[in-house]
Design goal:
The protein has a six-stranded mixed sheet, with helices on both faces. It has a four-stranded antiparallel sheet with strand order 2-1-4-5, with helices on one face. The chain is globular, with a radius of gyration of 18 Å. It has seven helices and ten strands. It has a domain of 142 residues: P-loop containing nucleotide triphosphate hydrolases (Rossmann fold, 3-Layer(aba) Sandwich). By secondary structure, the chain is α/β, with parallel strands linked by helices. Strand 7, helix 5 and strand 8 form a beta-alpha-beta unit. Helix content is 33%, strand content 23%. The longest helix has 18 residues. The structure holds adenosine-5'-triphosphate (ATP) and magnesium ion. The site of magnesium ion has 3 residues, from helix 1.
């Protein structure tokens, strides 16, 4: 992998008629989307519709089988390096402390370690886990581990942050708080965020736009601009428009037989 630090700016991601096949199986078919620079966009769709596959393609980790994927208007030909990824499973190394797990990314990228450590400590503070710096992953709660994963994804100040169901394994209360903390971090940094989720509330709570995907083979079937003020409250039901957005997402899933009642 190329060793580099991020530019700290945001990137745009454009998909035009993306197709992805695995052998004879078509996982993604005709996926079009535009994710603007600095935008927070959620992808929501049923299990198996190709969300993770899209993320891997957009990160340049697997090739498209057809169509075009452009980052800042340029076709992707290699893995993106100016990117941070938070996977569903935290993937922290058990034998490294929280701080050392974050620093691994800095070491790997050949960043100067002094400033990287200062930045890591700053991220720990912003994410409310300063007390966890010297703890090992086994000594952390699930929510704390995901916060460490977010710090690791941001240590090199990437243009794009991609998150694949990052809070899927967390309880509802922890999810509500971590959602707010992520929103505050995003408001401060203005990075492009691609956020994959199964949670309609989480998608509405975080996003500028929600892209709804069809069942397999996946493509974008609805696009909803979320016009709620930021930072958003924990209880989104206070906004009448929350129900309008939520109904519209449910309706898209009903149309495709994902929700049958
Ligand atoms: N490497 C692969 N080889 C063969 N099939 C694959 C591969 N990766 C993904 N698939 C298939 O492509 C489809 C989309 O998978 P993907 O992981 O992108 O779904 P997803 O939308 O992320 O689902 P989930 O919400 O459950 O995570 C699935 O049917 C999956 O089995
Ligand atoms: Mg997935």
């Amino acid at each position: 992998m190329t060793v580099n630090a991020g530019t700290g700016t945001a990137a745009s991601i454009t998909g035009r008629g993306i197709v992805k096949t695995f052998g004879g199986f078509t996982a993604v078919d005709g996926l079009d989307l535009d994710i603007r620079s600095g935008e927070f966009v959620s992808l929501i769709g049923p299990s198996g519709c190709g969300k993770s596959t899209f993320m891997l393609m957009a990160a340049g980790l697997i090739p498209v089988s057809g169509g075009e994927l452009l980052v800042d208007g340029k076709a992707l030909t290699a893995p993106l390096t100016d990117i941070g990824i938070v996977f569903q499973d935290h993937l922290l190394l058990d034998f490294r402390t929280a701080l050392d797990n974050v620093m691994l990314q800095a070491e790997f990228r050949g960043l100067p370690l002094g400033p990287a450590k200062a930045r890591a400590l700053e991220l720990f503070a912003k994410l409310g886990i300063s007390h966890a710096v010297d703890r090992y992953p086994k000594q952390l709660s699930g929510g704390m581990r995901q916060r460490v994963s977010i710090a690791r994804a941001l240590i090199h100040d990437p243009s794009v942050l991609m998150m694949d169901e990052p809070f899927g394994a967390l309880d509802a209360i922890t999810r509500t708080q971590i959602r707010h903390d992520l929103e505050m971090l995003w408001l401060e940094t203005g990075k492009t965020v691609v956020f994959i989720t199964h949670s309609i509330e989480e998608a509405i709570g975080l996003s500028d736009r929600v892209l709804v995907m069809s069942p397999t083979p996946g493509r974008v079937v609805d696009e909803i601009a979320i016009e709620l003020p930021r930072p958003r409250p924990a209880h989104l039901g206070d906004y009448p428009s929350f129900n309008t957005y939520s109904d519209r997402i449910h309706e898209a899933f009903r149309r495709f037989g994902v929700i049958k009642y």
